[in-house]
Amino acid sequence: MSTVDWKRSGEYEDIFYDTAEGIAKITINRPERRNAFRPTTLFELQDAFNRAREDGEIGAIILTGAGDQAFCSGGDQKIRGDDGYVGSDGVGRLNVLDLQVQIRRLPKPVIAMVAGYAIGGGHVLHVCCDLTIAADNAVFGQTGPKVGSFDGGYGAWLLAETVGLKKAREIWYLCRQYDAKQALEMGLVNAVVPLERLEEETVQWCRELLEKSPLALRMLKGAINAVSDGAAGMQQFAGDATLLYYMSEEAQEGRDAFKDKRKPDFSRFPRRP
Ligand code: S0N
C-alpha cells in the first residue's frame, strides 16, 4: 500500500516516473514479460535516471518493477537477436551495460525495491543499486549459463564483492534461485519485509537518507565504488574533490583574481599539516 502521494510525469512507453517528497520512483512497466527490458526500456530508464540526477529536489531514487510478480527478469529473450536485444530500429544492443554504469556514477543513493523475481540482467540491476529492500516473495538468481548469456562485468565481480567469491560462483554456475530470507543471510539485500509493506519500508529508508548530508552521501557512494571501479571510479571521486575545492574560498580567490586581472593572494589560507 502506498504511503506517498506520487506525482507522475514524462511520456514513456515502458516505464513510469513518479516523484514525491524528494524521492524519484522509477518503475519498469512490462509486467506481462515479468518486467524484462528491451532497448526502448533501457533508453527510457537512462532518461529517467538522468532526470532524477539533474533535479535538485530529488535526494533518493527507487528502482522497481510494476506489479508484485517481478522486479525485472533481465533482457527480453523474445527479441534477443544474434548480436544483442533488437529494438524497432532493427539494431542489436546490450545497452543495459550503460544503465549499470549510470546507476553506479549517479551521485545520489539508488534503492532497488524488489517484489517477485530479480533474475538474470534484472538481478544484476539490483546488485548495481546502492541498497536493496526485498518483499518476502522476492526471488533472486542468475540464468546466464542456462539461457546462453553471461555478464562478466558488474554482474560477476560486483556480485562477488557483495556475497563473496564462492557464493557468487555458485549463483552463476548453478543458476539456482534464492528466496528473500536466503538473500538476506548472504548479504545480497538490506532488509526483507512483508509484500504489503514493501513500498512503505522503502520510502522510510529514503526519508532517512533525505535527512542526511547530501554531500557526505555523495562522497561515500563515490568512495565505496572507487575501489572496484578502478580509474573510472577514481575519476568520479576526483571530480567530487574538485567540486569541494571549487566551493572553498581558497579556490574562489584564484577565480576572482583572474576575473579582477590581479595577482591571486593565497597568503590567508593555511598550509595544513
Ligand atoms: C522470471 C521467471 C523465473 C518467471 O517465471 P514465472 O513466474 O513462472 O512466469 P513465466 O510464465 O515464465 O513468465 C510469464 C511471462 O513472462 C515472459 N517472460 C519472463 N521472463 C522473460 C524474459 N526475460 N524475456 C521475455 N519474456 C519473459 C514469459 O515468456 C511469459 O510470457 P508468455 O507466457 O507470453 O510466454 C521466468 O519467466 C524466467 O526464468 N524468465 C527468463 C529469465 C532470463 O533468463 N532472463 C534473461 C537473462 N539474461 C539477461 O538478462 C541478459 C542481460 C544482458 O542484457 C547482458 C548484460 C551483460 C552482458 C551480456 C548480456 C546478455 O544479454 O547477454
TrEMBL record:
<feature type="binding site" description="in other chain">
    <location>
        <position position="149"/>
    </location>
    <ligand>
        <name>substrate</name>
    </ligand>
</feature>
<feature type="binding site">
    <location>
        <position position="261"/>
    </location>
    <ligand>
        <name>substrate</name>
    </ligand>
</feature>
<feature type="site" description="Important for catalysis">
    <location>
        <position position="85"/>
    </location>
</feature>
<feature type="binding site" description="in other chain">
    <location>
        <position position="143"/>
    </location>
    <ligand>
        <name>substrate</name>
    </ligand>
</feature>
<dbReference type="InterPro" id="IPR010198">
    <property type="entry name" value="DHNA-CoA_synthase_MenB"/>
</dbReference>
<dbReference type="InterPro" id="IPR029045">
    <property type="entry name" value="ClpP/crotonase-like_dom_sf"/>
</dbReference>
<feature type="binding site" description="in other chain">
    <location>
        <position position="85"/>
    </location>
    <ligand>
        <name>substrate</name>
    </ligand>
</feature>
<dbReference type="InterPro" id="IPR001753">
    <property type="entry name" value="Enoyl-CoA_hydra/iso"/>
</dbReference>
<feature type="binding site" description="in other chain">
    <location>
        <begin position="117"/>
        <end position="121"/>
    </location>
    <ligand>
        <name>substrate</name>
    </ligand>
</feature>
<dbReference type="InterPro" id="IPR014748">
    <property type="entry name" value="Enoyl-CoA_hydra_C"/>
</dbReference>
<feature type="region of interest" description="Disordered">
    <location>
        <begin position="253"/>
        <end position="273"/>
    </location>
</feature>
<dbReference type="Pfam" id="PF00378">
    <property type="entry name" value="ECH_1"/>
</dbReference>
<feature type="binding site" description="in other chain">
    <location>
        <begin position="73"/>
        <end position="77"/>
    </location>
    <ligand>
        <name>substrate</name>
    </ligand>
</feature>
<comment type="pathway">
    <text>Quinol/quinone metabolism; 1,4-dihydroxy-2-naphthoate biosynthesis; 1,4-dihydroxy-2-naphthoate from chorismate: step 6/7.</text>
</comment>
<feature type="site" description="Important for catalysis">
    <location>
        <position position="246"/>
    </location>
</feature>
<feature type="binding site">
    <location>
        <position position="246"/>
    </location>
    <ligand>
        <name>substrate</name>
    </ligand>
</feature>
<keyword id="KW-0456">Lyase</keyword>
<dbReference type="GO" id="GO:0009234">
    <property type="term" value="P:menaquinone biosynthetic process"/>
</dbReference>
<feature type="binding site" description="in other chain">
    <location>
        <position position="34"/>
    </location>
    <ligand>
        <name>substrate</name>
    </ligand>
</feature>
<protein>
    <recommendedName>
        <fullName>1,4-dihydroxy-2-naphthoyl-CoA synthase</fullName>
        <ecNumber>4.1.3.36</ecNumber>
    </recommendedName>
</protein>
<feature type="binding site">
    <location>
        <begin position="142"/>
        <end position="144"/>
    </location>
    <ligand>
        <name>hydrogencarbonate</name>
    </ligand>
</feature>
<dbReference type="InterPro" id="IPR018376">
    <property type="entry name" value="Enoyl-CoA_hyd/isom_CS"/>
</dbReference>
<comment type="function">
    <text>Converts o-succinylbenzoyl-CoA (OSB-CoA) to 1,4-dihydroxy-2-naphthoyl-CoA (DHNA-CoA).</text>
</comment>
<comment type="pathway">
    <text>Quinol/quinone metabolism; menaquinone biosynthesis.</text>
</comment>
<dbReference type="GO" id="GO:0008935">
    <property type="term" value="F:1,4-dihydroxy-2-naphthoyl-CoA synthase activity"/>
</dbReference>
<keyword id="KW-0474">Menaquinone biosynthesis</keyword>
<dbReference type="GO" id="GO:0005829">
    <property type="term" value="C:cytosol"/>
</dbReference>
<comment type="similarity">
    <text>Belongs to the enoyl-CoA hydratase/isomerase family. MenB subfamily.</text>
</comment>
